[in-house]
Queue: 4 jobs
Job 1
Amino acid sequence: MQYRGVVLDVDGSVVRGDEAIPGALDGLSAIESAGLARLFVSNNPTKAPPAYEARLRKAGIEATAEEIVTSGTTTTVYLAEHHPGARTYCIGESGLHDQLRDAGLELVGPTDAPDVVVVAIDREFDFDDLRDAYVALRDGAKFYGTDPDIIIPTADGDIPGSGAIIHAVAGVAGREPDAVLGKPSAVAQRVVLERLGLPAEDVLVVGDRLDTDIAFGLDAGMETALVKTGVTDEAALANSPYEPHHVLDGLGDIGRLLSK
């Protein structure tokens, strides 16, 4: 297959912490040599694209903010379209709060009659936050999660992600989110394909997670490649309902797909 574009997951696929995964720079060089359009697409909502640009550059990857889409990006796009200017209570870190404000949303407290509640990873999440989310949701506010990742890889090992906090809030609220807006959602698919300007069948998705990266690509009609440098092991691969088109030891092996 002749690809025209590639979607690259970030954590566990390209970098771990602030360092490039071994072989990743070679893989990125192969993508550049093949002349493919690329996007880095992350389910990490804690940083806006300019901050992600700085993080990637620190790892030796020359990327621009225009090449980066996060679950914060897809969440703010959706909310700006469907709830413009909405009063919004957000459990999340400062980078997500800034993105919501920049999209014209009004950030308010849990008792200030929010129209929308957004829940994401917050490494200072505690009992008070859980109580506040319950208060904000009990009067019928819309409930959105940024991304479903229960566990995320870091340089110091795997840690709980947005999905873990979303499940906690859903449990006390007695309701599921109205939507979860990062990969593999249809919203994320639309944002990414519009940014690339390519049809799905011309795009390869590379990622380490079956239920987000690979599901994202399969649902959208893209070709998919799983890399074994992140959270997915052989047992998970064997038991998953999501079957990638290709399995690579790491991004450094992508050249064999591009040369076909």
Job 2
Amino acid sequence: MGRGPSIENRKNAEDARRGKIFTKLIREITIAARNGADPAGNARLRVAMDKALSSNMSKDTIERAIKRGSGADGADDMQELRYEGYGPSGVALIIDAMTDNPVRTVADVRHALSKHGGNLGTSGSVAFQFKELGEIVVDTKASGGEDKVLELALDAGADDVVAEADASVVLCAPEHFESVKNALVAAGLTPISADIVMRPDNRVAVSGEVEETLGKLLDWLEELDDVQDVYHNAAFSD
């Protein structure tokens, strides 16, 4: 099975997405605020605000998104949609979108998949292969080694720590995400990324032409304005 992406590649990927990241973060905050404008009682909103602040979004921009989502600044017609499908060689895909035009969005997603040897599946067709988990990625070397990360994470309530390239990936139940993350930060560890994700139970190795085509598909999907997140069960060869 291929190893996970290197820290350098993770950072490069984040830099490449910088142009669209604010739009996606604002949408996430707006949707989350529908369940309450006070982050103290809205865990999803707290997570969304943390991500926005770590991306250097201004507090004013965050507040405007909260007001829009909570109805204080007028109605918001964004919908959350989840598509399930397959990429080249049957790689399982979950595509989360937020859109005010579902007809446009599903057409864009279907087109992206068909151009890269994939297709849309029915609801539930691949979701059973994934679990919703808190995922906190830290630089293993900068954190004092795998053993230290493992000890800190398990003491904080994490379920597992997985070594991926030069990073340690801390996994926990979604309800423990904030407490685990806060404990790691308090111990001096700085996460490269921290989010609640759909993580595959098992990964399928891809290489050669399939790997290249899948990479192009993932880039295409993440460039779509309406797509928030894309999850897959492939293990790349590098």
Job 3
Amino acid sequence: MPIPADWPTSEAQALAEQERLRPLVRAQDDDTPYRLIAGVDVAYDDDHDLVVAAAVLLDRDTLDVVEEATAVGRIAFPYVPGLLAFRELPAVLDALAALTRTPDTVVCDGYGLAHPRRLGLASHLGVLTGLRTLGVAKTPFTFDHHDPDPGRGSWTPLTDPATGEEVGRAVRTQPGIKPVYVSVGHRIGLDTAVRTTLDLARRYRQPETTRHADSLCRRALTEALRTRTPAN
């Protein structure tokens, strides 16, 4: 999996690319029906310059795994907060391309509009592919929120402290468990992103899409390291 020849290699180039793409994000629902939902996640080994992405396709109604794929390659960009998409996207795009069916929606383990420049991984991926995307993150990043009520389905706004803008929501997916942080990626409204997250998180804090993709990319990374490391 080669890194694209025109991929940004410096922080300045990456920032300029985010500014170019951010006006293309569509933060509202469209009329496209959807049933197949993919989860994507990434695992790294920086010491071996190795990244593995997983894409797992689920049936929205049953949450059964329909298909899965992985991609292995070199790390495409250094670690810079706010620019993580440039580390992850080449591998994620390859993993999605390896699926034989196109997902109707993609759930990213990360941010969409809940990003300093409103272009986190979910929004970046959606603009590049045209797919409907949303982000479900484990932490609120740099944004403010009040803790939601303890019941499943409760939520509070996730806001930018500099502007007061609502960039996402802290959503309680399980009673009494700490919330996840949902934001629009592309071609979806925030209400729908929250409903979709709750549909996918029927038993655990994280959506099933994320749980399956996380497990698969970790297993694939272990296997990639095993095959690349000579036995003693």
Job 4
Amino acid sequence: MKTIKLAALTLLAFGLAGCSTLDQLGSVGQQPKLTAIADPTAQAGYRPVQMPMPDVVAASYQPNSLFSNEARGFFKDQRAHKIGDILTVLVTIDDSASISNSTDRTRSSSSEGSVGGVLGSIFGGKVPLADVEASGKLTTAGGLSDGGSGTVDRKESLETQVAAVVVQVLSNGNLVIEGHQEVRVNFEVRDLIVAGIVRPEDIHSDNTIPSTKIAEARISYGGRGQITAVQQPRYGQQIADAILPF
């Protein structure tokens, strides 16, 4: 059964690779084509955007007032505080770590016994142990040596901004946020995902919050496209790495 699954996965991988290869060969010597302007809602696979939204509150006016309760007042706090609100996350990552470990372990043991001397004294050199001398000895020795070393030298730096949406308000007032940003340049797409829990008190007056203030932060920065594809091992190499025992 495992062999059949492996063969099916291999054929599927080769099929996908073949389709990608044909697409690349068909665009040799041609400029990348621009997408025609069209109604996005009429395109195949279009799905309306659905986001968490607060409950609709009917507009009402206070007596002798020109403003409704849904108006954004001059002195109203404009920071995100309810589901559907948007705030800007200032992603700043500047981490570095340098770790060096070294271990060296050695153990040795030895023992010595006069086995021949004992036998010689017991039998007095008589046959069949006439060749056993009183000075005969038995010696054993052993040793163990183990050593290892490891070094980690890592440095990461990232500074960018991404708008996130409040998707949930916890019972204690904290906000669950999630933001996703995609930027495409030529044939490479850069993805930035930010998610976590923030306190309303940590949101600045300009409706921004640093990434260091996000609890349970999940920050992902990566990409997909031609450059990323070149950096990845080919399908055959990935399959070989998965099944080879050495």
